[in-house]
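A student in our group prepared the protein record below, which I am reviewing. I have pasted the whole thing underneath without changing anything:
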Amino acid sequence: MAAPDRRVLLTNLTNGTAAAAMFTSTFALAGARADTHAIIAAWIAACSAYFVFRPVHHSVRPLALGILLCALGYLHSWIAGHFPPSIDMGKKGMLYVLLILGFAAFLGYTPHLVLNRGLSISLRSTWFKNASIALTWTVFSMIPWMLAPPHSDYGLTERLLSRFLMLLALSIASDVPDASLDRGKLRTLAQQLGPMRTEIIVIVLLLLSLAVQGPGVGAEQLAMLAPVMAMALLFMLRNKWVREWILDGAIVLHALVLMIFYTPHPVLP
């Protein structure tokens, strides 16, 4: 058996940690008390998902998939045990729809991962891969919002859109180092447009993410400095793994700023 690539191992852990940090930051946005057990389960689920998609060895995939399903099962039971008395389908209900779409995208790729057959839609095509990753991360990270009472869903739609645009931008940015390798084989945006044009699109998406937050959200605007500064660094770097770690660090810093500085909007009676 070949020795596992330590860079892959480390990157899977940093990716999972970044997703769990975003998950944790949503407790602050929702004005809910953080649950340590749920945060640990979210970290396990996120890390194991990356070991399914990018295993250090193909034999790891079935085990990682089993751990992922167990962690998601725990999170499902945790959410069900903390539901508010009623859920407005126009607000929190949209999370259900998005969760189903994100899970469907994952299921579409699972047969290829587990059976090593071309039975699924390629997540490496232009936009589809990046949009699927951004959607799944966005909805997964917003799960704690389910704990907020129905009358305190202030800004949920704007936050969903803002987070999706930010994660879409960072997902696209992570493809830039592979542009030359992907040429002629894959159809990523970076491969089709080239690094410079792709990074311009990334900056535009980050600015849109900032714009849709609306006024009066100082901590959220401050948190957006992390991915913007990360992109400034990435203009000078082309190493795939270093870029991944910088992007993950930016997401963790973004989440920390929200957890430290965000003040919940006053709940109206």
About this structure: The radius of gyration is 18 Å.
